[in-house]
Design brief:
Layout lengths: L8 H7 L14 H14 L13 H14 L1 H11 L35
């Protein structure tokens, strides 16, 4: 696996019932989708930055987007923590001011009070 961590088949069996059942003609298994997500999160890359070994980025993005809207990651991480496979504690969220756009009036700049005729 590129980048290190991936779920093994035995670990996947612990969480398989948390994931939606695949229907129809699917090109990737849920295990492959999870390992692509692990790579992306572990390496901090964007969807389009996934290596070609994982396949087309959009093929991975589409089910992940559906899963996110359905709350699948929350159920999955709760199961992984309950079975002591994964330990995550989120205590702090930071916003970098370079990514937050502020209207010029909100920056503390002096306002023009004198009108010119």
């Amino acid at each position: 696996m590129l980048g290190g961590v991936e779920f093994a088949e035995s670990q996947y069996q612990h969480m398989a019932d948390c994931l939606p059942r695949q229907h129809g003609n699917v090109s990737m298994t849920n295990l492959q989708l999870l390992n692509a997500l692990l790579y992306m999160v572990g390496n901090g890359c964007k969807w389009r930055g996934l290596p070609p070994q994982f396949g087309n980025w959009h093929t991975i993005y589409t089910p992940m987007n559906r899963w996110s809207k359905a709350g699948v990651p929350n159920r999955l991480f709760a199961r992984l923590q309950a079975e002591k496979i994964l330990a995550i504690r989120i205590e702090l969220v930071c916003l970098d001011s370079t990514t937050v756009k502020v209207h010029p009036d909100g920056t503390g700049a002096q306002k023009k009070t004198i009108r010119k005729p």
